[in-house]
């Protein structure tokens, strides 16, 4: 029973949330795939997984440097409001961008993925990197 409670309590499905090109510094559009809650020791981590098809664009793909600024905006404008709306308390937020949907924890060398980590402090995302 305890395992099932964690499985259901640690994974949230959402209606798709998107950030348009005008919202992100790189100009790319992304869609929220899922939000996961993980307990790592005594700390709660929230993982916001976004699909960002332009990471793998044939012409002018988004670089990590461009995506890094996007991830900071997504933390501030999507993750923090989500936490407030759902009354969640997390010490860390991880933002991930993937050029196409893949299962959580799966490594696929053919799929471009970027990750960045933030500490939550005073309702702000403080960059920590991963």
Mean pLDDT: 84
Largest sheet: 7 strands, mixed
Report Rg: 15 Å
Secondary structural class: alpha+beta
Produce the secondary structure layout:
Layout: H1 2-9, E1 11-12, E2 18-19, E3 30-40, E4 43-51, H2 64-85, E5 92-98, E6 113-121, E7 124-127
Parallel strand pairs: 4-5
Antiparallel strand pairs: 1-3, 2-3, 3-4, 5-6, 6-7
Structure write-up:
With 130 residues, the protein is α+β, with helices and mostly antiparallel strands. It has one domain (2-127): Diaminopimelate Epimerase, Chain A, domain 1 (Roll). The chain is built from 2 helices and 7 strands, in the order H-E-E-E-E-H-E-E-E. Strands 1, 2, 3, 4, 5, 6 and 7 form a 7-stranded mixed β-sheet that branches. The radius of gyration is 15 Å and the shape is globular. Mean pLDDT is 84; it is low at 1-16.
Provide key terms for this protein.
alpha+beta, Diaminopimelate Epimerase, Chain A, domain 1, globular, single chain, 7-stranded mixed β-sheet, 130 residues
Compact summary:
This protein has 130 residues and is of the alpha+beta class.
